[in-house]
Amino acid sequence: MLASKVTLLYHTNSEEQTIFHLIKKVRDMNATKDMLIAEILRLDRNLAGLLMGHGLHCVGCMMANNETLEQACQVHGVDADLLLNDINAYLDSTRALKE
Predict the structure, then answer these.
(1) Which helix (H) or strand (E) is 28 found in, with range?
(2) pLDDT at 62
(3) For residues 9 and 17, which has the higher predicted lDDT (pLDDT)?
(4) Could you report the per-residue pLDDT of 43-98, keeping only the tens digit for each?
(5) Backbone φ, ψ for residue 79 (5° rounding)
(6) How does DSSP classify residue 31?
(7) How many CB atoms lie within 10 A of CB 90?
(8) What backbone torsions phi and psi does residue 15 show, to the nearest 5 degrees?
(9) Which residues of 52-85 are buried (b: 16+ CB within 10 A; e: fewer)?
(10) Contact 90, 50 (CB under 8 A)
């Protein structure tokens, strides 16, 4: 009985550590051109305003779940490299404020 409790405790702590590391990894993640718009918005919901400011009104669009940043930029005539730099600069600045 004690062995099963210890095993359960070990697995629980292991899962909690795994979840913690995954959350940290996502929080420290930078956007890439091949990420879906929806994935970028999951990094930080405030990126919606930045995307819209660049002419991508994909925030509520059905294509946000199926279209990469690069594809959306091509469709809307937006410079993907410039937008990507702005997104990652924003993410870096929010991380710096949290530290």
Answers:
(1) none
(2) 80
(3) 17
(4) 999 999 999 999 998 777 787 789 999 999 999 999 999 999 999 999 999 988 87
(5) -70, 110
(6) P
(7) 17
(8) -65, -40
(9) eebebebeeeeebeebbbbbbbeeeebebeebbe
(10) yes
What is the token pair recorded at 96?
């710096």
Q: Which of helix, strand or coil describes residue 29?
A: coil
Q: How many residues does the structure list for the chain?
A: 99
* 3-state helix/strand/coil string of 36-97: EHHHHHHHCCCHHHHHHHCCCCCCCCHHHHCCEHHHHHHHHCCCHHHHHHHHHHHHHHHHHH
